[in-house]
Amino acid sequence: MTHPLKQSRLCASCIPYVLAELSSDAGIRAWHIMVRSGDIQVATILIEPIHQKEPLPVVIYNRGGNQLFNSLTSERVTKRLTPIAQAGYVVIASQYRGGEGSEGSDEFGGKDVDDVLALYELLKSHPGADLKRIGMFGESRGGMMTYLALQRVDWIRAAISIGGFSNLARAAELRPEMLDVFKECFGGATDAMMERSAVHHAQRFSKSAPLLLMHGASDWRVSPLDTLDLSAALIKERVPHRTIVFEGADHMLSEHRTEVQQNILIWLQRYVKELQPWPNPEPHGR
Questions:
Q1: Model pTM score
Q2: Contact of 134 with 150, CB cutoff 8 Å
């Protein structure tokens, strides 16, 4: 249904309409927005507190999956994103090109990264968003998207990854069906896989955006070594980050959901909402 939200509130190339308005108890409104990324329109979801009185910090959420698999539904928005919005953030998430409601074809870390970065342009014209306080949070493939974004822009204040791909060659070896996904999305060439694999590009990461890495030790979808190897590479480059591997946890850390949610909100509070400085990264002490 059409909503009387003026296009000028967001951006001239966006077509906003209500996706869902949650109960008044939740205090959150959700928008479905078509955003231009290059020459295509990409479906995007934005949720925000209904009664915000001043610009709020922002969290860009990068979903997992590929193409139509694991696209964001109203249920997923409620489960994944509403708790963050209720904590006082504007939350925005792209379905990516080739995803539900979007034009184009998924490239699994190619031009679809542009779909994520295009959200910054939308946020520039959103009066409820504080552009000086933008965080990013990705899960699984979304973790990979977060790593790629951190290599390209300097406006991300802090980031979080859960079960993120950082080594696509390992992913293809661990799960041969993923090679079929890679071939379908971007041809599966070795150089393209390496370009998407953050473990080879730690030197490109922003050193002003603290990164929280979380992974389940019993994850069969993405090897926990992806996170451990990336952490080792980030340590060498003095990239600010914290790594947590949860014992006996699956891909989505479902056995530790309460603790994971607490870690997410604490990280965002410290490094996005409050913009706290990162501790001294150089070797020191007794």
A1: 0.92
A2: no
Give the SS3 label for residue 4: coil
d(CA 19, CA 92): 13
The DSSP line for 88-103 is: T-EEEEE--TTSTT--
Tell me the CATH class for 7-273: alpha beta
Residue 125, C-beta contacts closer than 8 angstroms, at least 6 positions apart: 8, 9, 10, 11
| Distant-in-sequence, close-in-space partners of 49: CB < 8 Å, separation ≥ 6 | 27, 28, 29, 56, 85, 86, 88
Residue type present at position 241: H
Contact yes or no for 33/45 (Cβ under 8 A)? yes
User: What are 234-277's pLDDT values in tens digits?
Assistant: 999 999 999 999 999 999 999 999 999 999 999 999 999 999 99
Q: What CA–CA distance (Å, rounded) separates 15 from 261?
A: 32
